[in-house]
Amino acid sequence: MPTVLFYLPVVTPWWFHNIVLPLIKALYGAAVVHILAPPMWRNTGIGPDEVAACSSLPDLQWHIVAGEDHSSLRTKPDDPEGLVGFVRSLNPDYVFCRSADIETPSAFPGKVVHLLEGGAPPFRTPSEWIILQRDFWHHGSMPHLEADDRALVEAGFAPNWARMRTRLEQEMPFCLPRAQALESLGLPTDRKIIMLPLDYEHEEMFSSIHHRYERNIDLIHAVMDWIDDRFLVAITDHPLNYQHIDNSRVHAAIEALGDRARLVPNDPEGRYSVTDLLIKHGDGLIVQNSKAIYSGAMFGTPMLRLSSRPTADWIGVLTEVDEFLSEVTAGRRGAAEDQLRLWYGCHILHEIIDPAAISAGEILDRLDRPYSRERLAGGLSRFEAHQRKIGAA
Fold first, then answer.
1. Are residues 170 and 315 in the same domain?
2. Are residues 297 and 177 in the same domain?
3. One domain for residues 120 and 178
4. Rounded to 5 degrees, what are φ and ψ at 53?
5. Confidence of residue 335 (pLDDT cuts 50, 70, 90)
6. Using one digit for the tens of pLDDT, what is the confidence trace for 22-78?
7. How many domains, the chain?
8. 155-161: long-range contacts (C-beta < 8 A, 24 or more apart)?
9. CB burial class (10 A; 0-12, 13-18, 19+) of residue 166?
10. Which CATH number characterizes residue 201's domain?
11. Edge-to-edge order in the sheet of strand 261-263
12. What pLDDT, in 10s, does the model give residues 258-291?
């Protein structure tokens, strides 16, 4: 029986109960399951509710790191050698990480993956669906595909790709001409628009250590230092910031910028993504680690990424400000459509999993075999069922 370790220093209660717990239950009995995590702090870690939720799993092996330095596990452990040594004593065959620290888990034995959000805008998927990624926040990555596998992915995904393209051209408000769309959002039509989606900035977001700027206020000030009056910066705030934090200081800072920048509110009824609409009609996009990068690729928008994490070459992001502004000014476009279509197909049909509807065998097989064409049909069926449910099919 294999040994599985869940390493969970930055798991939140919602993430544990909706995503991690279904995975644990699926693996329980088919593997020896260990949980290594700190106690609850800043809405991350394991608390009494999480332990109680596992009461029906008596053989689950708990390892709660409750020392004075447990807070350091979220980003850079005070004693990484000791932590790695303890994990080696468990000798796991498979490790599932929910951690902002990626250096320490890379030294763990066994096959290691990170549990990451599976969203790929402008396609809509449930927030509970995730991916098992070997290289943390490597946007645009995919497993190696032979020519016949590429053909299978593209053929299987083609109808959904066509439907999405049709929606983005024919349905409101995406069907609006650029001038009309910008005017509806209170933006001028006589300047280049650079889109800046803000990141989630709750205290539980330890992964922001991989941003160039951990605080949104610092990101905004930096961007405005680079951008001259030829451009207007259109800023959208993360939906979770509206729900969970007081972002009034950031919003006031944007207002103080006058006609150089504009905070564009999200659609109050949640009918569509204002960020996606702005990216479609904007002239450039600046991201750190936001999944808005995929909408930028979909709409062919020149992009500047400010991150310590890698980006697949096919996306065509830029990392230097001057080069980015030159592309925006010239109106050049980004990702090639064939690569874009292949990535979306592979991501949605193959990479995304539903933790509530996956077996132990499939979970472990995904770590043993990064790609298997046998997964495509199930991924297609699952995705299309969700699209029918939300009326997007």
1. yes
2. yes
3. no
4. -65, -15
5. confident
6. 999 999 999 999 999 999 999 999 999 999 999 999 999 999 999 889 999 999 999
7. 2
8. 156/345, 156/349, 156/376, 156/377, 156/380, 157/341, 157/344, 157/345, 157/348, 157/349, 157/380, 160/123, 160/348, 160/380, 160/383, 160/384, 160/387, 161/341, 161/344, 161/345
9. exposed
10. 3.40.50.2000
11. 261-263, 231-236, 192-197, 284-287, 303-305
12. 999 999 999 887 788 999 999 999 999 999 999 9
Which structural domain, as residue segments, surrounds residue 375?
Answer: 3-141+352-389
Q: Are residues 188 and 113 part of one domain? A: no
* CATH number of the domain bearing residue 378: 3.40.50
Q: Is 146 within a domain? A: no
Tokens of 385: 């069922």
Q: Are 191 and 80 found together in one domain?
A: no
Taking alpha carbons only, the member of 210, 205, 261, 206 closest to residue 236 is 261
pTM of the model: 0.95
Q: What percent of the chain has pLDDT over 70?
A: 100
Q: What is the pLDDT of residue 182?
A: 96
149-169 pLDDT per residue, tens? 999 999 999 999 999 999 989
In a domain, 258, yes or no: yes
Looking at beta carbons, which pairs linking 364-373 to residues 24 or more positions away fall under 8 Å? Answer: 364/2, 364/4, 364/27, 364/30, 364/31, 364/94, 366/132, 367/94, 367/111, 367/113, 367/132, 368/111, 370/134, 370/143, 370/144, 371/143, 371/144, 371/145, 371/149, 373/149, 373/152
Q: Where are the alpha helices (DSSP H) in the chain?
A: 13-15, 21-27, 48-53, 80-90, 147-170, 178-184, 216-226, 239-244, 248-255, 274-281, 292-298, 321-330, 337-346, 360-368, 376-389
C-alpha 42/C-alpha 11 separation (Å) is: 11
Please check whether residues 180 and 299 belong to one and the same domain.
yes
**Do 203 and 306 share a domain, yes or no?**
yes
Together in a domain, 23 and 112: yes
Do the Cβ atoms of 46 and 15 come closer than 8 Å?
Answer: no
Question: Tell me, what amino acid is at 301?
Answer: T
Query: What's CA 95's distance to the chain center, in Å?
Result: 20
